[in-house]
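Hi! If you just cloned this repository, the fastest way to understand the data is to look at a raw example. We've pasted two of them here, unedited. The first protein comes first, obviously.
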Amino acid sequence: MEETFRTGRAEAFGPWPVTHRESGAAFALRPAVRLATADDAQQVAELIATAFAGLRPMAYLVPDRRERHRVIAANFRIFVEHAVEHGEIHLIDDGPAVAVWFPYTSPLPAPHDYDRRLSEATGAWAERFRTLDELFEQNHPAAPHHHLAFLAVHPERQNEGLGTALLHYQHARLAGLPAYLEASDPRNRDLYARHGYQARAPFALPDGALFWPMWRPGADL
């Protein structure tokens, strides 16, 4: 597929049907999307941490609520910076929604100096993050695919269709390749199922919090 998406350039796509949060009115959205750069790394990490704050796995990773946002944002920043170099980060408009993708079409390196950076970012809870990393690695498919590592919408902008718009945008660019993600609650699992993702047997963190590996088959072109 010819690539027309460039760093620093906003590209309109759609339109996609969305819902106005307050009135409930439906309308067509043609959002602008840009590819995030290293300058956006902290903003993106903070957005993901804010959007994911209520998910059960976050409480396992950082039991201290006072420290949770700071720690998980620091951890997410490691992967956001890695995606700037080795994946793609799609931001809508002024940044209320983001999707972080990695192409598993060839071997990907680990984030630079990952073990040290993880320890510095997560401190006393580093082993909990390593447990999650091991579970993700054990359940990650081997076949070529694109991995949706994070899809996050700011809580004040949820239920407007922004996440759906980002999914449609990337799905149209996959050139027939499958896609993969890990859903962290039943609501998200069911949302992704409506977009063609098929849930596999879940795996659990030590406290029982579940993740559903989900696979979206590729298309014959």
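Ok, and the second one:
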Amino acid sequence: MADSQPRSKRTQLIRTLLVFFFIYGGVSYSLSLFEYTYFNLTGQALFGVSKTIDSISKEELINEFHRCGGPLFGANSVETEQLNDPIVVRCGRFWPFYRYSMIVPANGYIPGALIKYPDQPAEVTQAKEDFIQNTTVINGGYMLLSLIVFSLTLLAVFHFFVKKDEEKGYKWAFQAFASSLLMAITYVGVMFFVDPVFSLGW
């Protein structure tokens, strides 16, 4: 009897720690994917930009790539009207790899930056329209899905901390974490297939 009580307390502690871990994972993945899909759909940084560069040479852009540790990425569902228009780019795609966003002039060296060139062939224009349509549907769907997954974590928090129902809290926290992980994995898999520059880095 004396041994079962400490074991029960240890089990309860481990269960509580798992709930915290599952909630943290669910919130992190769902909100991070929401922010990333928002960026792709709007071309805007939800949490602002670290700096703005009005003019940049190829060498300076390469230096920015080195500072980031990889390429800076443009939004894959937005086409810029003309070369050198200011666009938001990001260092890293989403948590835990995302670091910051910044504004630079649009140019062809930025992966994912879609620019409307006046002399581009009609088939290129059509291909970009089809690509933007596909990525818009995917990003929009996963943005909605990320909100649904986030609501599962809120449900877990409600049951575990408000209603003090550990069993339901654990169940919903695990489902939220598993759903967020599956959501992130499938999004990466789909984008690897749809977006040719997605494999260039995280």
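That's it. A detail worth noticing about the second one: Residues 119 and 132 are 19 Å apart (CA to CA).
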